[in-house]
Design brief:
With 355 residues, the chain is an alpha+beta fold. Among the domains are: 58 residues, no CATH class; 162 residues, Jelly Rolls, CATH 2.60.120. 38% of the residues lie in helices and 15% in strands. It has eleven helices and nine strands. Strands 2, 3, 4, 5 and 6 form a five-stranded antiparallel sheet that branches. A hairpin with a 3-residue loop joins strand 7 and strand 8. Helix 10 runs antiparallel to helix 11. The longest helix has 42 residues. The radius of gyration is 58 Å and the shape is rod-shaped. The protein starts with a helix and ends in a 10-residue tail after the last strand. About 1% of the residues have low confidence. Keywords: Lectin. GO terms for molecular function: carbohydrate binding. This is Galectin. It comes from Populus davidiana.
């Protein structure tokens, strides 16, 4: 009986031990299965799927296999096409040497170095359009400058530049028989002038300036357009200094002379707004003569008047003078040492109907 009880108790213990082992294995299996299910669900989540599989490149991955990082690096570092020089419309006009003088080109040294930069094929997109617009503006500016230069030289054309100089001088001329002849190839235009610098010589007592016109084949002597004759005051106070202006033609001879100082009324026509004779000399003489009341006073006042005229006379023996004879619209005008002295109305020296 005791052995039977011991066997039964041992059987019961083995039965419980086996059940515990089975239960433990079942728990382990359930726990492992739950862990594996969680990992599989995490890998198959929609977030991970769409993140790793964009909708637009699914077909690209099928058609183009993945490339190695080395190949991608080589593709990124491959150099682009080398820039070259191109012909830009209007660029040659901006660098035309015939439009720029040598002195003006000194201010464009940097500009000349920019031509290679503007001709590059990789220049900014609007470079070509800007060059075309600049070319048009440059041509317009050059035409304006050319017009201004032509306006300044409107009275001198290209064929007359050498034959009609801007100025002439007697410095290099030689004198013949005490006379100095200055040739003015193209004549005198309005506002032209002739200046004479010298010292009057009392031994000759007079000197003259003559403007001679062109001589025709039928004329033995050229016409005298203006004769400006100066008589210097003598040592005797009774000698009156004067200036006589006149013209001469072969057909009519000498015309009516104009004398300064003039003893005529001061209410006479003016030439280009200027009086025929210096008013200061005329008025001083007339005032002295008007104040005379007797023959003795007249003689005294004549001497005093001559003395005043001599003092106011522009040409004095031994004194340097600068006489400028200039051409106005209505006549000739003489200025001595900066003061207007005489004017002379133009006269017709040749009948235009007879050549």
């Amino acid at each position: 009986m005791k052995s039977l009880k011991i066997a039964l108790s041992m059987f019961k213990m083995k039965k419980w031990s086996g059940g515990v082992v089975i239960i433990a294995l079942a728990i382990i299996l359930v726990f492992s299965y739950s862990l594996m299910g969680t990992r599989t669900q995490k890998k198959q989540s929609s977030y991970d799927f769409f993140r790793n599989h964009p909708a637009g490149d699914s077909h690209l991955k099928d058609n183009h296999p993945a490339k190695s990082p080395q190949l991608e690096l080589k593709k990124a570092t491959k150099p682009s096409k080398k820039p070259h020089y191109i012909n830009v419309e209007g660029l040659s006009d901006l660098y035309a040497q015939n439009n720029i003088s040598k002195d003006e080109s000194n201010a464009l040294v940097v500009w000349f170095q920019m031509r290679l930069l503007l001709s590059r094929s990789d220049a900014l997109p609007e470079t070509n359009q800007g060059i075309r617009e600049a070319s048009i503006a440059w041509k317009d500016l050059l035409s304006k400058i050319k017009e201004n230069k032509a306006a300044q030289l409107s009275n001198i054309n290209k064929t007359e530049d050498k034959n009609c100089p801007y100025s002439v001088s007697t410095i290099d001329l030689t004198k013949s028989s005490g006379e100095t002849i200055l040739d003015i190839p193209c004549g005198l235009a309005e506002d032209s002038s002739i200046s004479v610098l010298g010292i009057p010589d009392g031994h000759s007592r007079s000197f003259q300036i003559e403007f001679l016109g062109s001589q025709l084949p039928v004329e033995s002597n050229p016409p005298i357009i203006l004769q400006y004759n100066v008589s210097l005051p003598g040592d005797n106070m009774t000698e009156e200094p004067f200036v006589v202006q006149n013209t001469w033609t072969q057909e009519h001879g000498w015309g009516k002379e104009e004398r300064c100082p003039s003893h005529r009324s001061v209410n006479i026509p003016k030439v280009d707004g200027l009086v025929l004779c210096n008013e200061k000399v005329v008025r001083s003489t007339m005032e002295e003569n008007g104040n005379a009341s007797s023959v003795g006073d007249v003689s005294a006042n004549v001497s005093q008047g001559i003395a005043h005229e001599r003092a106011n006379f522009p040409f004095v023996e031994g004194n340097a003078v600068t006489a400028t004879l200039w051409v106005g619209l209505e006549g000739f005008h003489m200025t001595v040492n900066g003061r207007h002295e005489t004017s002379f109305v133009y006269r017709e020296v040749r009948n235009l109907n007879h050549g």
